[in-house]
Write a structure and sequence with these properties.
The chain is an all-alpha fold and about 375 residues long. The protein has helices at about 15-35, 40-65, 70-100, 100-110, 115-130, 150-190, 200-235, 240-250, 260-275, 280-305, 310-345, 350-360, 370-375.
């Protein structure tokens, strides 16, 4: 008498509920690790991003028979020097605006006087309505013992030391990645994942490097053009320090949605403080809105294309969770990580589910699963 072996679906290890629970547990553990060890992860992830962006120039120098290590050092020194120069040029005007912040808010409050009167009037009505309700007897206040705080020099020294260590880690890891190139990263990845060959991993890494590097190279050129256009427009309207607002527009535009909104908000506040007529303020707002619309609706789709676009909801969630886990750096890294994941999903053999999740238009996706869902929707 033959005994039939149990079906694979009946095993506990392959049960859908067990698989889902395992994925949730792994995601929670990974999120906890990224939050707790963010000081260690942030420099490494930044170095990986810079490697993707800067590996193109390094490979170009290598093809001209320049040693890879020397190519990596030259490219990193040039990029860091350019960033340091930009910070040096923008430092003085930025410090002046920060120093004038109280005066700025006072000027805005004065020019928005009618709005403030209406707000104060509504607040008086609210207080009058509250006074008609009998107040509850307040509980006796407990004595609060102030917690001991660290001295200011100690706090400054600790913060400075942490920044210096993170910066040094970022530079060293970037140099090692650029000097080692895709072969080193491929061998390291294949050593920790079974059923992977270094050659296949190297091909995948090369595809990610080329596509993501090209994407951010074009995006950087677009942002530079946006910064120049913004600076010229602010100069034409007579705004103070127009080059500062152009640099701000170019830098924050790496953050989707939030970057353009930040630039528009800042230039509007500066226009309110600088001009006396409403027409000039509206002119500055309209000009900046027009520039941002041309960049987002014409330049980006035309030069970058829609192949590397990511679902806007996924981008928003990435920005949200990136800010919660890693602060400002997490917001800056959210979009590069999502774009890299999409390129990996497009070129990996088992990345269809991730590609479906990240795609901005699932109905027109090329994956067979999505075509089946589009043609035969569930009841």
């Amino acid at each position: 008498m033959n005994v039939r072996a149990p079906a694979p679906e009946s095993r506990a290890g392959s049960h859908p509920a067990v698989v889902t629970a395992s994925k949730i547990f792994i995601a929670g553990a990974l999120g906890t690790l990224l939050y707790v060890a963010r000081t260690a992860f942030i420099p490494v992830v930044l170095a990986l991003l810079f490697w993707l962006v800067l590996s193109g120039p390094v490979e170009s120098l290598c093809r001209r028979r320049v040693p890879r290590a020397l190519s990596a050092i030259v490219v990193v020194v040039i990029v860091l020097s350019a960033l340091a120069t930009l910070v040096f040029l923008m430092r003085n005007p930025a410090q002046e605006w920060f120093a004038r912040a109280p005066q700025t808010f006072a000027t805005i409050r004065h020019k928005l006087g009618p709005v403030s009167h209406w707000i104060n009037y509504l607040e008086d009505i609210r207080k009058s309505a509250t006074s008609l309700v009998p107040a509850k007897q307040a509980a006796p206040a407990l004595a609060v013992v102030p917690a001991p705080t660290a001295s200011t020099p100690v706090v400054i020294f600790t913060a400075t030391t942490g920044v210096m260590v993170s910066t040094l880690t970022f530079i060293v890891v970037t140099l090692f990645l650029l000097a080692g190139g895709p072969p080193m990263l491929a061998h390291m990845t294949a050593a920790f994942i079974d059923n992977l060959h270094a050659s296949g991993v190297r091909d995948l890494i090369e595809k990610v490097r080329v596509q993501v590097g090209h994407y951010y190279l074009v995006t950087t050129l677009i942002n530079i053009g946006l910064g120049i256009a913004t600076g010229l427009a602010m100069w034409a309207w007579g705004m103070p320090t127009p080059y500062l607002w152009g640099a701000l527009a170019a830098i924050v535009n790496y953050v989707p949605y939030g970057g353009a909104a930040t630039t528009l908000t800042v230039v509007t506040i500066v226009a309110i403080m600088s001009f006396d007529t409403l027409g000039q303020v509206l002119g500055v707002m309209g000009t900046q809105l027009l520039i941002a619309t041309i960049e987002g609706q014409i330049a980006q789709p035309l030069l970058v294309g829609k192949r590397l676009n990511v679902n806007p909801l996924v981008i928003f969630l990435g920005l949200w969770f990136g800010g919660i886990f890693w602060g400002v750096v997490g917001i800056m890294l959210a979009t590069p990580i999502l774009v890299t994941l999409k390129v990996l999903a497009e070129n990996a053999h088992h990345g269809q589910s991730l590609l479906e999740f990240l795609s901005p238009n699932p109905a027109s996706s090329r994956t067979p699963r999505l075509r089946k869902l589009a043609s035969h929707p569930p009841p």
